[in-house]
Amino acid sequence: MIVLSGLILFGIMEGLKVYTRQNAIIQVPKLNGKTLSEALEILEENSLSAEVVDSIYQREKTPTSIYDVVPAEGASVKEGRTIYLKIYSSTPTQKALPDVKDLPLRAAEERLKRLGFIHFSQKEVEGLHKGLCVGLEDSEGNTLQEGKRISVDTRLVLLISGKQVETLTVDDLIASDDDSMAVPAPDTTSVVEVIPEEKNEEDKPADWF
To answer: What distance, in Å, lies between the first and last C-alpha atoms of the chain?
Structure first.
């Protein structure tokens, strides 16, 4: 009975090992730098599956090449485990432009950076308040409106108010050296003579005495 019980217990343990694939331990192969097609082929050869979970765009990187895997390379996993891949995209990510109008330059840049925009330059324009962002343009001078979806790789031009708008008051015009631009000050010594209208006898009403 003791031997029989031992055989039964041994059979159960071996069966559990087969069921849970405890003996099928595989190390995640080196995939970083491989293209997606190459990585899929390598994983299939190692009885592992794959799923792309993220992608980013970088101009200098090969499109669809692997830049990170989860679990990490060299980790021990069971046969049939899904390996999650992060790849470089072939097209830049697009984001909607935020509202940066009337923000200081640094605050406008920070708001754009949080969305992934990193290429900036500045252009000084006229404005009532110096140092505020009054709008955005692309590198070709096209105006970019808030909410427009564009590539995060776009080179943005921040329009910053730096030139003060010249305003002229009445006093400025009066004090102008240019006689053609000057507005004469009112003459407070002038006397206005009121000339009464001459009565017309033909139009005199009946009760006009």
So the answer is: 151
Does the domain formed by 94-164 have CATH 3.20.20.100?
no
Residues of the chain with CATH 3.30.10.20: 23-88, 94-164
Q: Give Dmax over CA atoms of the chain in angstroms.
A: 152
Both tokens of 8, joined, read 């039964």
At 135, the amino acid letter reads G
- pLDDT tens digits for 87-117? 998 887 888 999 999 999 999 999 999 998 9
CA–CA dist 41, 50 (Å, integer): 10
Which residue spans within the chain are E strands per DSSP? 25-27, 49-56, 66-70, 76-78, 82-88, 94-96, 120-127, 133-138, 143-144, 149-151, 156-164
pLDDT at 203 over 80: no
- The CATH code for residues 23-88 is 3.30.10.20
Instruction: Note if the pTM is more than 0.90.
Output: no
The answer to whether residues 102 and 134 touch, using CB atoms and an 8 Å cutoff, is yes
